[in-house]
Amino acid sequence: MLGSKQQNGVPAGSPLRVVFDVILAIMELKSIIARMIERALACRLKDAIAHTPAVALLGPRQVGKTTLALEVGQGFNALYLDLESEQDRARLAQPELYLADHRDKLVILDEVHRAPGLFPVLRGLIDRARRSGRIASQYLLLGSASLDLLKQSGESLAGRIAYLELAPFNVLETPNLPADDLWVRGGFPDSLLAPDAGRSLRWRQDFIRTYLERDIPQFGPRIAAETLRRLWGMLAHHQGGLLNTAQFARNLGVDAKTAASYLDLLVDLLIARRLPAWHANIGKRLVKSPKVYVRDSGLVHALLNIPDKETLLAHPVVGQSWEGFIIENLLVCAADKAQGYFYRTSGGAEIDLLLAWPDGSLWAVEIKRSLSPKVERGFHAACEDLAPGRKFVVYAGQERYRIAPDIEAISLAELAAEVFAA
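Above: the chain sequence. Below: its structure as tokens.
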């Protein structure tokens, strides 16, 4: 239409233009909401930057690392470089010269795994700055993998770098959102804040496809996307089960060593978690194999094509999905203050989650989906074995009350708050 205003080729006033404007408005609203949700890690990140030459902020893709880094970086005169951008990589063609010219700033390096050769350069620049009196707030490195996959930084920057992990949104960060949305959709911002369940599910399905086809090949040996997809699906069906590498290997048609390396990769990419078994010399036959989880409950449901809460409640995975959701939230809130285990004996004694604190004390956590939880004999037997200092049953209700003189029924949000504050 001659003379009409257009944006992105869409004439003003047309029905398509209205739809286009609505989509833009929704995207902008999601962005605003995501920025308004304060990340629990923000204070620790600011403190680490203020006291350490380099900080590595690690987390899976699309978890919000860049958003958090840019917000925190505003207080540190930050310069942002995205190493997936050809333009920004070109600026670092001579990294020592470029970074030396910006030594008065906090330099944020996003997707740092794409430039492993930078780590020795950073070490030299950090040491030079230290000799001139600047000992902190120099580099913030963002990566989509754990330390095991960023060995260059561990080897080159030992004693000069702090590591923090940013997980998807947890229950303490989303008090104004329905808790069941966090469980069903998971904590990735674009999934949790999607305008409806269908778009949330499609986002997670696209995320899985992109991870398999584009992201994972950057970190490990070339693995067929379909093979990893099958492994990821098996983990979802097996959510919270004991790790049986031989069974996974048979189902994938590979040897056990190869299957173990595939699982190691998913753990290093912060997608899967191994929950170790508690080992103690207490004269009982203990289960020693770890449990294995897909860390984000929303990804579990996408892998199993579960679109909404009603479908989930009717699915056989519902109990294990709920257990994994509770465990992941509590471990994320505990951060590096407590270590997580489970406890199980051949005689049936069992604790779903055992939190071991630095002072040697233990918290025993039983997980129930019921609104009227009952403690089973196996939990009592396990507590007799280990004598934990505190005992909780996390359930789907909100009221806190005593099931027994030394056992409390408690909501996830309330226990997460206690764990975070401990």
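The chain is about 45% helix and 15% strand.
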